[in-house]
Amino acid sequence: MGETFTIGIVAGESSGDAHAGALARQFEAQAPGSRWFGAGGPALRSAGAEVLVSYERLAVVGIGEVLTHLPQLFRAMGQLKRALRERRPDALVLVDFPDFNFRLAKYAHKLGIPVVYYIPPQVWAWRSGRTRFFEKYVDRAFVLFPFEKDFFEAHGVAATFVGHPLVDTLKPDSSLEDFLSRHHLDPETPRLAFLPGSRTSEVKRHLSVMMEACREILETFPDTAVFVPWAHGLPQSLREPFRDLPVRWVEGEYRDVLGHADAAVVASGTASLEGALMGVPEVVVYRLNRLTFKIVKRMVNVPHAAMPNVVLGRGAIPELIQDDFTPASVAQTVSEMLKDRKESGSRARELAGEIKKQLGEGNASARAARELVDFLKTVSRP
After folding, report:
1. How many CB atoms neighbour CB 302 within 10 A?
2. Contact residues for 196 (Cβ-Cβ < 8 A; gap 6+)
3. Buried b (16+ CB within 10 A) or exposed e, 349-358
4. At CB < 8 A and 24+ separation, what contacts does 79-86 make?
5. Residue 17 DSSP SS3
6. Residues 6 or more apart from 178 whose CB is under 8 A from it?
7. What value does the mean pLDDT take over residues 136-149?
8. CB of 331 closer than 8 Å to CB of 119
9. pLDDT for position 313
10. What gap in Å lies between CA 365 and CA 28, rounded to an integer?
11. Which of 271, 334, 336 lies closest to 307, judged by CA?
């Protein structure tokens, strides 16, 4: 048997857990018998990791939400620090989730445990002063975008471009034919998707605006089939005020709903990049509480909020952020997409091709796993 390793890992929300799980599975193929432990969710568990802290205990957004969750965040931090201290892994792998992971990285550094940041926060976009943290506490960064490698290395941080894992997930989980059959839809029926987010706090801020926009859209396009993917664990009470709307609240079909949509309204984040890569006409939206937004706005260094636009370097996909995110603005933007679905779809597919060229040729998780194995072989064990 070849060399095996013990690795700590922290993924603080759903998309991070998916990437962490893929990394752990690919790593097992190259270093069989290695052990993983830390924070995550079902993807890490299915990859054989020991999940000590569920990401649901960690996933909060904004200053107000953090304050109300401080006790459980402190308990989770203490549990993970204790595990690092007692188990002394060969490395700690951190997946995004900076406000929590930065503190854990400092502790691991103090213990002499090497720190690898897989999918580092977008310090090139905002709070660029945090590059000093990477220079001091992070031994290696595995980045998803080619321009990130140059950025980090210019700030004294060893970085490797591994490509973006989403390039491997360009297709929905099932065919359009199966999707239409499952939902008893005619192929000519327009399909509209609203993706309010996966966290309760996000959905509270986004859903009411989306559903009021839905009312306006249905006045012009009454035959439209409207879908809302409902993330596991979200309270169903949030959708009760909209029972009168002909909305299909769908669980477990998130990628099908998004990938087969003629138009989509997507909360800014990973889903916007997924939609763009699948060639879906979309408008990207987001709203924070006012205090958080005022603070964030002062720190942002890039002109675009939607990741597809950041990758492309231009505003190719419409964005409606904060006060611009209203029922009327959403309805107007979506209506333009639905008026000529063929043209909107063709343009979205062209953009998908452009974005894919920027993100590598695929197999990002396998490349990240190989880089991690190579890195671990170069460091002394704690």
Report:
1. 12
2. 202, 203, 206, 207, 210, 228, 267
3. eebbeebbeb
4. 79/52, 79/53, 80/8, 80/10, 80/38, 80/39, 80/52, 80/53, 80/104, 81/107, 83/8, 83/37, 83/38, 83/52, 84/8, 84/108, 84/111, 84/113, 85/111
5. helix
6. none
7. 92
8. no
9. 85
10. 12
11. 271
d(CA 172, CA 257) in angstroms, rounded, equals 8
For residue 145, give both structure tokens: 């975008």
Q: What is the DSSP string of 105-141?
A: HHHHHHHT--EEEES---TTTB-GGGHHHHHHH-SEE
HSE value, Cβ hemisphere, 13 Å, CA-based, for 341: 14
AA letter at 135: E
Return the structure tokens found at 131.
């590059």
Asked if 118 contacts 102 with a C-beta cutoff of 8 angstroms, the reply is: no
Cβ partners under 8 Å of residue 253, min gap 6: 173, 179, 229
Q: Which two tokens stand for residue 279?
A: 């060639």
Buried b (16+ CB within 10 A) or exposed e, 13-34: bbbbbbbbbbbbbbbbeebeeb
Q: Which phi and psi (to 5°) does residue 47 adopt? A: -85, 0
pLDDT band at 382 (very low <50, low <70, confident <90, very high): low
* CA atoms 45, 47, 49, 54: torsion sign: negative
291 forms beta bridges with: none
Write out pLDDT tens, residues 308-330.
998 888 999 999 988 899 999 99
Closest Cα partner for 81 from 113, 99, 107, 102? 107
Point out which residues pair with 284 in neighbouring strands.
266, 319
Question: What is d(CA 370, CA 372) in angstroms, rounded to the nearest whole number?
Answer: 5
Q: Is 145 helix (H, G, I), strand (E, B) or coil?
A: coil
Question: Residue 258 corresponds to which tokens in the numbers above?
Answer: 């998004």
